[in-house]
Design brief:
The protein contains nine helices and 13 strands. It is an alpha/beta fold. A hairpin with a 4-residue loop joins strand 4 and strand 5.
Length: about 270
């Protein structure tokens, strides 16, 4: 991976941004805009990050999308900005102003997930630290605080519950979390494709920032289409040409530079000057 804020790499990124008539900026939330916390409720958007996102959203040449595994209404609430697009549940829900895009057979999916929630929730009594987050269309199985020697047994218990419904749901691994989603063609990469098609600009640039395995396909799609794909945090990526930022703090630095670049037009800010 290429470190985004090195002088050489930043210069190349600036060239791409200044050539584009429209920038479509996709940002994951947990681990990208905010540090990963033991519980999602503790991951708060900093004042500085929220301020720079608000400023960016007012520029006519940029469209912002917060793309998260959280439910749509929750991610809208915790970010709290108008004039931007929100994607919830890894692409299953999209909110564009008053317009909302969701999956077919939504009520059936909710019922099936409610059944899983009732079966999986009680496992927390046998495995302290495990808890299930019911997100309506998806569920997150959190085991960050489960002792390492118990994780394998916990996974076996979960598989026994999920096996009868394997035709309806798919399980993906995240950072100390398993994500259960309907087995449909909806994920973050799908959301990027759907939203990029809404743009009427021929000269548009896609920028995607994400930290987790669930961002991998979206990063690949953006990179493959000539955009700027940025992996945040620890871990490597097998996507050729992907950039890297070390932390949400560096994401804020990038967003600040992006706002300055748009403000100043063709001027090229140096990464060492902020």
């Amino acid at each position: 991976m290429k470190y985004l804020l090195s002088q050489r790499n930043w210069t190349g990124v600036v060239k791409k941004i200044t050539k584009a008539r429209q920038v479509l900026l996709f940002l994951d939330y947990d681990g990208t805009l905010t540090p990963i916390k033991p519980h999602p409720s503790l991951a708060k958007l900093s004042f500085r990050t929220k301020s720079i996102l608000r400023e960016l959203s007012h520029f006519p040449g940029i469209s912002i999308c917060i793309i998260s595994g959280r439910p749509l209404e929750e991610i809208r609430r915790v970010v709290g900005l108008t004039g931007i697009t929100y994607v919830g549940n890894h692409g299953i829900e999209i909110g564009m102003g008053r317009r909302r895009v969701s999956i077919p057979r939504a009520s059936q999916t909710r019922r099936s997930l409610s059944y899983l929630y009732d079966r999986l929730g009680p496992l927390g009594r046998n495995f302290p630290g495990f808890w299930v987050e019911n997100k309506g269309f998806t569920a997150s199985l959190h085991y960050r605080q489960v002792p390492g020697q118990e994780v394998k047994e916990l996974l076996q218990e979960i598989e026994s519950v999920l096996t009868p419904l394997s035709g309806k749901f798919v399980v993906t691994a995240g950072k100390k979390v398993w994500e259960i989603r309907p087995k449909i063609n909806r994920d973050k990469a799908w959301a990027v494709k759907f939203l990029s098609r809404q743009s009427k600009s021929v000269s548009r640039l896609l920028i995607y920032l994400g930290d987790d395995f669930t961002d991998h396909k979206a990063l690949f799609k953006v990179q493959h289409n000539g955009g700027i794909a940025i992996k945040v945090g620890r871990g490597s990526s097998d996507i050729n040409g992907v950039y890297h930022l070390k932390s949400p703090r560096e994401v804020l630095s990038f967003l600040t530079k992006l706002a300055g670049l748009i403000r100043l037009g063709s001027n090229r800010p140096s990464p060492e000057n902020s």
